[in-house]
Amino acid sequence: MTACDFFRTPRETIGLLSLSLCAILSILLLEPQISLSQSTSKGKWKTVSVVPLPGSITRFDYESLDSRSGRLYMAHLGEGHLVVFDTKSRKVVSDLAGFPHAHGVLVVPQLHNVYVTVSPMTRTPGHLAVVDTRTLKTKFLVATGIHPDGLDFDPQDRRIFISNEWGRSVSVIDAVTNRPIGEIPLEGEVGNTRYDPVSKHIFSTVQTKNQLDEIDPETFHVVHHYPLPGGLYPHGLWIDGIRHIAFIACEQNSVLLLFDLETRKVTDRLSVGTKPDVLTYDPLRHLLFVASESGTVTVLQERRRTLVKAWQGHMGNRAHVILFDPKTRNLYLPIENQNGKPVLLIMRYETSPNRH
């Protein structure tokens, strides 16, 4: 995920200059011949609540929901805080300091832990903070690679896999002992990393190579590199284990790729908001929500391994973070500046029965 505007990451500065003319031509020749203008009639957005958040007007990053307790954990990156929010009472429980330049957040309820990646804005290794969800105290600080960002949990091996964006690697942390047990080198800057419950493998987007890497979590080896035709700088990643498909957001050309995890090929491509970032998914209605750095949110519906654009519009200032709660169907969007203060938008996207 991109860093603060006043702290530029390499993927914000390399731009298209980093791609040779040959590379761009090859991408154009390989990309699927799919319309970028498909759409359906719009669903309806309902504002559930607008909740003031603590801290100054600075950037937010990832968020993670504990569905058991109803607590939402948000990285207030610019503030260096972890915000704990009760989705039932709609109140801030705590505003925890001590997480400078926090990016990734992942709560694992069965371990009573929330994991936060902390990335110094220098090319030095970062760390993973392990916070006890019962006491809200930091228990461990675990070394990672350079600029740790997104992360996911492998429930079978009970391991945390972390994207080291600038370090061009994936760190592996034992979630039981909270110790680093490996670092997997990749061929370029790493975007998001996700666990696939079907293959039980780890997948990472490799931004500067325009590819998706498949990792064996037992051997720590990359077993396949998959090209992503039609995409430039793949970053955001979401895996639907039920339909066994992956959604990949590409920052530099603002498209969303649908990647079939059965055939291991891109099957569709649609335009989204400028610089797409965080993805979240409604598995019952097969709706993907794509938040972007421009503040545009795009709603896409997956139908038989193709995409249909259901809605697109501006949601808020830098509304690049979004999370869907399948229990309530509420969507949570932290906004860094609304009328001079940070807020949490709680929204609901309503569709008529014949749209899903």
> Strand count, sense and closure of the main sheet?
4 strands, antiparallel
CATH class: Mainly Beta
User: Over all CA atoms, what is the radius of gyration?
Assistant: 19 Å
Mean pLDDT: 90
Rounded to the nearest angstrom, the distance between the terminal CA atoms is 30 Å
The gross shape turns out to be globular
Task: Count every helix, treating DSSP H or I runs of 4 or more residues as helices.
Answer: 2
- How many distinct beta strands? 28
Instruction: Spell out the CATH superfamily.
Output: YVTN repeat-like/Quinoprotein amine dehydrogenase
User: In the residues, how many domains can be counted?
Assistant: 1
- What are the secondary-structure elements, in order, as H or E? HHEEEEEEEEEEEEEEEEEEEEEEEEEEEE
Polypeptide structure, described:
This protein has one domain: YVTN repeat-like/Quinoprotein amine dehydrogenase (Methylamine Dehydrogenase, Chain H, 7 Propeller). With 356 residues, it is mainly β. Strand 15 (202-206) and strand 16 (211-216) form a beta hairpin. It has two helices and 28 strands. The chain has helices at 10-13, 21-30; strands at residues 44-52, 63-66, 71-76, 81-86, 91-97, 102-108, 113-118, 125-132, 138-146, 148-154, 159-164, 169-174, 179-185, 190-195, 202-206, 211-216, 221-227, 234-240, 245-250, 255-260, 265-271, 276-282, 287-292, 296-303, 306-314, 323-324, 330-335, 343-350. The strands form seven sheets. It has a four-stranded antiparallel beta sheet, with no helix packed on it. A four-stranded antiparallel beta sheet has the order 2-3-4-5, with no helix packed on it.
